Amino acid sequence: MTAHRPLCAVLWDFDGTLVDTRSRNLQVNRRIIREIAGRPWEQFAVLRSQEAYDAAQRAATNWREFYRDNIGLDDARIDRAGKRWAPYQLEDSTPVPLAEGVAGALGRLDGLPQGIVSQNARETITSMLSAHGLGRRFSCIIGYAEVAMTRQKPAPDCLLLGLEALAGPPHGRVLYVGDHPTDIRCAANANQELARRGSELRVVSVAALWGPEAGDDRWATTADHRAATPNDVVELVERLARDQD
Question: Could you count the other beta carbons within 10 Å of the beta carbon of residue 245?
Fold first, then answer.
C-alpha cells in the first residue's frame, strides 16, 4: 500500500455486511424460481432450507452463477429473474436486521463519505436503510441494476461507479468492506482498472468477518485487511488516518 495517500471514503457491501438478508432473500428467490422455472421451489434442493441456500450463495461468485449452477436457468431466464428481484423484495415483509455493531460504526464514521456497492437492488437497499433510520447515512448506493447484467461482481464496474459517485478527490485510498470472496476480487479488479487508467485512487479491501457466515475465513487471506467486527473497521480508518499525517 502506498504510504501517506489520504483516506477519502468507505464503501460497503450490503447483504451479509451491513444487514442479514438471508431469510428474505430465500423467500424472494422461492417466489422468483417458482415463476421463472415454472416448477415448485421444493423441487430445488438449494431452496429447501436456509442452510442449503446459504451454502450455495457462499459458493457462488454472483447471483447469475447461483441461478445458472443451482437452478439451471439460461441467460435469458436469468435476466428475467433479475428484473423480478427489486419489486419482489419490496413486497416481502420478512424482517431484515442490521448486523450487530453496524449502526454504531456507521455513526462513528460520520465525518467520512460512505457509500454502498452491492448486488442487491438500490430500491431494496434504500427501503431497508430507511426502516433502520439510516437513509441519510450514505452518499451513494450502487446496486446490481446500475451495471450491465453481464458485468456483475467480481467485474469492477459497480465499484468504479461507486468511486465516481462519491465525487471525492482524484487520488487517495477508499476502503471497500465486504463479506464474500467476490468482494475482495472486485476490489482487486478495480485497482487493476484504475492503474490502467493512470488514476491515483486505490481501493483497500477489508474482509468483513462478522455475522452468521464468519466461520470459514480462509477466503479473507487475500484481503488487504480483516475486520472481526464493524468496530474494527472504525479502528482501521483511524489508524490509516494517522498514517497519512
Answer: 5
